[in-house]
Structures are given as C-alpha cells and as structure tokens.
C-alpha cells in the first residue's frame, strides 16, 4: 500500500487508539497529511481512495471480494474473515 501513510502506533499494543482517515484522491490526502503535522502522526493514518467506495450492504459477496478498494481497506485494517 504505497499510498498509505500509516499511524505510528498502527500494529502495536496501542493500535486500538488509531484512526484511519480516508480521503477522496491524492490531493485530498496531501491536504490531510499537511494538517496532521499540527496534531501528530502517532495515532492518525491517511489513505486515499481511488474512486467512490462500494456500498457493501447492497453488493453480493463476490462483488465485494472482487473490489480492489474494499480489499485494500480490509488488509490495511487487519480484518479477517469469520
């Protein structure tokens, strides 16, 4: 995930305090990252979405599984299938 700016505490014992900011594209990510210098990067990460996010409540499992953006978020957040 080359475009992910991870929180410094992500993946540590303090990861439950972390927040992932999702932006609409790279330019919005740049703006968000510039604002983070004021509040710090320990618990805040930023990831730019490439397009409108899929509404997974209305999509079939196969459509969700085939959606690259949703799969990126699942991996970034460390979610696992049950």
UniProtKB/TrEMBL annotation:
Q: Which residues form a coiled coil?
A: none
Q: What keywords appear on the UniProt entry?
A: ATP-binding, DNA-binding, Isomerase, Nucleotide-binding, Topoisomerase
Keyword Isomerase annotated: yes
Key word DNA-binding present: yes
PROSITE patterns listed in its UniProt record? TOPOISOMERASE_II
Q: Which cofactor does it need?
A: Mg(2+)
GO CC terms of this entry: nucleus
The Swiss-Prot or TrEMBL record annotates one GO molecular function as:
DNA binding
* E.C. numbers: 5.6.2.2
Any one Gene Ontology BP term: resolution of meiotic recombination intermediates
Q: What is this protein called?
A: DNA topoisomerase (ATP-hydrolyzing)
Highest lineage ranks of the organism? Eukaryota, Ichthyosporea, Ichthyophonida, Sphaeroforma
